[in-house]
Amino acid sequence: MKITYIHHSSFCVELQNSILLFDYFKGELPKFDKDKKLYVFASHFHEDHFDKCIFEIAKDHPDVTYILSKDIKKRRSKYVKSADQIVVMNFDEEITVDNMKIKTLESSDIGVAFLIEIEGKVIYHAGDLNWWHWEGENSPKENKYAEDKFKSGIDRIKGRDIDLAFVPLDPRQGDFYYLGFDYFMRNTNTKIAFPMHMWGDFSICDTFINSKYAVNYKDKIVKISNDNESFNVEL
């Protein structure tokens, strides 16, 4: 399995027969194998997770399907010829697209997180589902609400075996940057986890891997050093 970190929260996952592209809005796209089915996911409409440029991929790729969160309204494109190429999902839904099963969780911000079963693998992309604790910006009540909403989402997949996960690790949260990633890892059986949503501060990877919080699962965290970095992963 080849995984390419494109930028921010955008990843490309290439499996034997299919390719998954998550939350692309800018950056250098890898060359897609045109013999493989391409699925393009967008977790919500925020400009750091979605741009309508994703529809231009259909101009060059012969077999592409878009899976979009319901809050995304910009769904029309001259490059997407068939309405069947666009699948819209709300949170807490489960559907099957081709041979791929998709479950959505409600974000603690907006949109959805994706849990995908494809080619015998389980893949999770959080979108903006995270423990958003903003000290000094939000009131204690607001922070508690965000905590409860995040935990209720992750608790829906508690104990789940997950092969590959993409999880926020946001340095803007200061001392509370680790909360969501740590809760996710302690409440799922995840084999490999990629940090994302780092706003270009890749040093947060080292900080977390070497922290007391990650002691029990640090070997499962993939260190990202720059955009357009590729990893070959055996699962």
Task: Kindly list the characteristics that best describe this protein.
235 residues; alpha/beta; Metallo-beta-lactamase, Chain A; 7-stranded mixed beta sheet; 6-stranded mixed beta sheet; 4 helices; 15% helix; globular
Number of strands: 13
CATH architecture: 4-Layer Sandwich
What count of structural domains? Answer: 1
Strand content: 25-35%
**In CATH terms, what is the fold-level topology?**
Metallo-beta-lactamase, Chain A
CATH class wording: Alpha Beta
Mean pLDDT: 96
Taken in chain order, the helices and strands follow as: EEEEHEEEEEEHEHEHE
Class of secondary structure makeup: alpha/beta
Helix content, binned percent: 10-25%
Note the total helix count: 4
The biggest sheet amounts to:
7 strands, mixed
Round the Cα radius of gyration to an integer and report it.
17 Å
Strand arrangement within the widest β-sheet reads 6-5-4-3-2-1-13
Give unreliable regions as ranges.
none
Overall shape: globular
Separation of termini?
8 Å
Looking at CATH, the homologous superfamily is: Ribonuclease Z/Hydroxyacylglutathione hydrolase-like
Overall description:
The chain is an alpha/beta fold. The chain has one domain (2-232): 4-Layer Sandwich (Metallo-beta-lactamase, Chain A), CATH 3.60.15.10. It contains four helices and 13 strands. The protein has helices at 57-60, 140-155, 179-187, 203-209, and strands at 2-7, 10-14, 18-22, 37-42, 64-69, 86-89, 94-97, 100-106, 112-118, 121-125, 161-168, 189-196, 229-232. It has a seven-stranded mixed β-sheet with strand order 6-5-4-3-2-1-13, with no helix packed on it. The chain has a six-stranded mixed β-sheet with strand order 7-8-9-10-11-12, with helices on one face. Helix 2 packs parallel to helix 3 (179-187). The relative contact order is 0.15. The mean pLDDT is 96. This is MBL fold metallo-hydrolase. It comes from Intestinibacter bartlettii. Pfam families: Lactamase_B_3.
